[in-house]
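Please, structure for the following, as tokens.
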Amino acid sequence: MADQASLPAIPGAGIARRADSPWAPLGEPVFRSLWIAAVISYTGTWMQNVGAGWLMTQLTSSPLMVSLVQGASAIPVFLVVLPAGALADMVDRRRLLLFTQAWMVVAAAALGILTLMNLVSPWMLLVFTFLMGLGAVMNDPAWQAITPDVVSPVRHASAVALNSAGFNVARAVGPALGGLVVAAAGSGWSFLLNAASFFGVIYFLYTWKYVAKETLPAQSIRESIAEGFRHVGAAPQVRSVLIRTGAFSVGATSLLALLPLICQPHGAQGYGFLLTSFGVGALAGAAVLPRFRLRYSVDGLVAGATLLFAAMTFLAGQVHIFEGLCLVLFTAGAAWIGILACFNVVAQTMCPSWMRARALSMYLLVLQGGMAVGSAIWGQLAAWQGVPAALAWSSLAMIAGLTSIRRHRLTGSELKMAPAVVRD
């Protein structure tokens, strides 16, 4: 489904300031309501991820098919994320989000019913995973673009960080619940519970009095997309963020894509608890991230976290004791949030409001598209050479990707890491 860089200049920079509380956005009723509904929805999504990953291992033993469960949800990025970003800058974002949320309810419920009726084949599972991914990709640019509309401007960066924290709360809770549900009742019920989890967000959107702050002149989606590319072409710091994100995402996807195969000896509950370990690690990483941001540059933080994540990816193929795997996933989760936290807020703040959804769609294309490509590459390599070899090669790919730092640094005045602040 974060933390920052590229914050706009703060008026009155010479005045003494104090950091706003990271929890301050929850004091605003609109943001709090959306945040709670989103955490419930994210939890359902993680339950579905566990159910889909585990169901595929029961339907086929092919490493490629198992890895494509993650890839199928990301493939729609290549097809619709840029039009989705343009559309989110052109139409009422609230209505667009209501449509995409309803789409995902129908897809998840249909898959749940078919699974309970034992009518799902490996390819049918991939088709429904694709349909869920299609709804999520159409949803994401508009979803991330409304953050400034539900929170005070001074708390925007804190709100983005809280959104990431909420996602990782769900990452910590959802897989464990999903593992329990799958073990007790089967994957079909995890899909149905995911369908139900969207209704909180739908209720919020239905009752939210949204007022569009800026509108674009009448233009086609193609013209809107072209305008977005022109904007990126004129903004070197935006290109740097996209290149760095792509250099990381292709290799980084191997760990989660191949995890169902890694933990097959430990059952569905073991799979759920390993994903929970990853989520708890991400929460721990988010808790200590502010201190690291004060001590290290953005590039130094991302480089160190990438090396740590690459090491954990390699170890995941070598460690066979369950407790050891939990520690590996916990550490990987902490490194993961350190990396994506630096990229995500950059994407949130690197463009003006009227361009925001299109810029976010390009970021999501690079991030999730890289993961889709990586899932297919590492899944096929695992089929040829085994899971440990695929994880080792992906670790090397992440380390090689660090060479992009030399020409595409994130550290700089226009991409300076900074907390949300208010005047004393």
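Strands lie at 17-19, 421-423. The first strand starts at residue 17 and ends at 19.
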